[in-house]
Design a protein that fits this description.
Blueprint lengths: L3 H36 L3 H14 L3 H20 L3 H30 L8 H32 L1
Helix pairs in contact: 1-3, 1-5, 2-5, 3-4, 4-5
């Protein structure tokens, strides 16, 4: 392959890296200060705020940002396969998208169904904070790792 493919693959990898880093930054912000700030509020307030965030975050811009790096990295790997390019796709797909779908989203759904004023809400909230944030740390790290791999490709 030559010509356009020689330009397209590195450009797609660079865009995938930027996208993965942006998603990693979003997840890092949640892990570093947003969840900590919500944890400092009374349980009912923190829960209600996170419930509102979880509704608001479901929008086309977030979906494009979340899934775009995977598409771009996969296209770059298809044009110029390498260990780094394939690893960038795998790490992003498993660590960012996979963990989101199998760990964070189910926790969000459980929180969505909870009433912040009900007895037991505080225990649910504390468990949610601990588990959601732990998985979110992994998502952030995977996104940053994928960005580095995409740049290396």
């Amino acid at each position: 392959m030559g010509g356009a493919f020689e330009i397209a693959a590195p450009a797609l990898s660079a865009l995938a890296a930027l996208g993965a880093a942006a998603v990693g930054g979003l997840f890092f912000g949640f892990s570093n200060f947003i969840m900590a700030a919500l944890a400092r509020r009374p349980a009912g307030e923190g829960m209600a705020a996170m419930q509102a965030i979880n509704v608001t975050v479901l929008n086309p811009a977030l979906f494009a940002l979340l899934f775009g790096p995977a598409v771009l990295a996969a296209a770059a790997a298809a044009l110029a396969p390498s260990t780094a390019a394939l690893a960038a796709v795998a790490v992003y797909a498993l660590g960012c998208i996979g963990v989101t779908g199998t760990r964070n989203v189910p926790l969000n759904e459980k929180l969505r169904r909870a009433d912040p004023q009900e007895p037991g809400a505080e225990a649910l909230w504390r468990d949610y904070l601990r588990r959601w944030t732990r998985w979110n740390h992994l998502r952030a790290a995977a996104c940053f790792a994928s960005a580095g791999l995409a740049l290396a490709a």
